[in-house]
Amino acid sequence: MLDRTATRLQSALVPGLALLALFLPVRSAQQALFAASFALALATMALWGGLFGRLVLRIPRLGPWTAVYLGQFALLAAAAPILALNGLVSRATGRAIPVVVLVGGATIALVVARRRELRPPARLDLLALLGLGSVALVVAIYSGHLSALGLDLHEHVAWTRQILDSGHVPLDEPGTGILADYPRTFHLLSALWNAAGLAPPAGPTVKAMPFLQNALPALALAEQMVDAQAQERSGTRHRWEIALGLAFYVYAFLVVPMVYPVPDLLGTPRFSSGGLLLLPGVLIAIGRAQKVPGAAILAVATAPLIAAWSLTWNPIIVVLLGVVTVPVAAAVWLALRPPGSKDAPARRALVVFAASAVLGVLVLVQDPWVVGVAAQRIPVCSRIVHRAGLMTFDEAVALGRATPRDKSVRNAQASPPCRDAGCVVRLAVKAAGDALRRPWIALRAGVADLRGLISSPSMAALRDAFKGAVPFGVALIADYAGLPFVACLAAAVLVCGWLELRRRRGATVATGFARSLLIATLLGIAGAGIGLDFAAGLAGALNDQRHESVILAGYLAGSGLPVSVALLWLPFAAAALVLAEPGQRGEALPETRPRRAALAVGGLLIWLALPIFARLNLHRPLQHHGFRTPIGLEDLSALRQVEEAIPPEDGVIIPAEHANVANWEHWVLPLGNTAALLPYGERRYLFNVYIGASYPLSWRDLDEGLCSTDPAARGRFLERTRTRWALVDDPDAADAAAALERPRMCSGQDVPLSALGAELPAVRQSKGIFLFRIRGRTNATQR
Questions:
Q1: What is the per-residue pLDDT for 510?
Q2: DSSP 583
Q3: pTM across the whole model
């Protein structure tokens, strides 16, 4: 009886600690809801990753974070044919199965089919526990409010909701028939995570993606390092879990700003690309640690699918895949030497390659950006698009269904620097020569910083010390973190050198994969730095001064920022293992059993609470009030009540302005509190950036249409867009009249909504959200 009770308590310990770690950062009912949703999403991804491990990799049980990491890609691959079929059903019947139903139904079927294999882990995994607490902290921070953090995230949340609402990846901006012009794989993956958690408002999920997509491969690699190290070294498994757990904590919260890499999470897909770029490296590590050749085969044979995902994640990611992932994966392969397959490896690799190529094609033909580019350049693609009732944006402009963007402030004429292949080759050779200097530049910068600290130490010098010693032109290292990061790597290299010297003098020194991995990853990221410099240098040299060319060159020049968040973990984790190795030879101190139990309980409590104290690099997301204003679940409920009064086909004006951003690009930006609601809106909101019904409009429609001083021009705009309503969120307004008069639109004219046709009384209002009717065309001419 006592043994049975002890067994039950032990089996309940791990889930209980996991729930404690998950809900410890929660401070509100809304955060608790999202914590529960995210727990369900983690469990769903782990289930699919476990299935992938058993069926494809032939591994009975993957580590929890490895299962979650691979599970998201297994689900993403499965989504390609399923959502394509769902899109065809939607086109034929006008209805589609929601993504949450597809993901939930398939997961329930999996649970029923594999119910005998599902059991909670009996072993306490400290690395998994600290990782869960760290992820839970980030989710709690970002679910404190549902607002986007800026214009960039505003768009990404809206595009994620389009996929959730439509049940597939829509090729056009909803309701327009015009092909969208932004890749959608990042948004599909965000939608799958959201749907796996039963689809709460998508904002917190999208905001957490940069952290999640860099943390998952880091934790998966750490699990494989623990497994490999435990196989080759004496000492308990918990030693390596603690070493890598602490390394992850320091890295994620102190060394790099993984949670909030840049203000307003600008470039969210690029800063979330680490999970995709490290996928081959993780597969190679799995092959080595679990001694399965299939994982290493997948790292190469899935190249077509990974390339398709990269292109439809953000076009520059496919460039990074070649110049960053290839050298890093090659270095990891040489260091770990995963086992080769003996049973027809060529045939199996060919089958996997063919399957991934088919899935890659499905990914490409479902992506609106790829389809739009193909329709502009390939006549047969254009005909297919037209048969589907769609058109490109340029075609819509020619037909008068869209207004030219003229987004660029400086419309420079194309000035190609090369007119023949020989010129391109010469520029490529020069870019390669400059790129090869990158390791020397980093070394020289490190030596200069060291001399500066010795000669004139100061807080300013300490803050920026050794940031230039990282082998990327630009790298994301937190303030004051360059010195400890470089010091950790230097100490580990010295330990490696000392052990190698002992070995040459005849001492017995066991070979360890951690030392090989450290040297290999240092060489790998050095190669990645050279590759990035080459890509950026060549793009800069071939820049023809068009807006798109300038943007491409700028993105590649700054690509070291997102790449460094994921890649610097490789040598840092290897260094942590190397530094933990010498201490394992010490004899354990004799302790009584009660004392050991007390130390274990105290240590476990500190371990669980450790993420709660991660505040040094979290002040910005903690203090961020959202894009224009914070909103919560109650605000979305109020929005739905107001939207019930709006016919789905009618246009709705919201407060907006024409902004010239940094004298660089023209944008139409929503104003005030209303902006925060718009990614969650379900009606045709006009001048909501370039999303949905606003997609065909530009700043000219605002300035020369709605805000025209010619009443007839304004009336024509209202009729063309079927505008019947105006919506304002102003919780501080004393009444509807104040809410109508306070928003000021039309740059330079300071015009209230009432002067644009909105009239009292409010048709509906709820929690500070007011809906007004716009006067018809007859009265629209009255100013």
A1: 58
A2: G
A3: 0.94
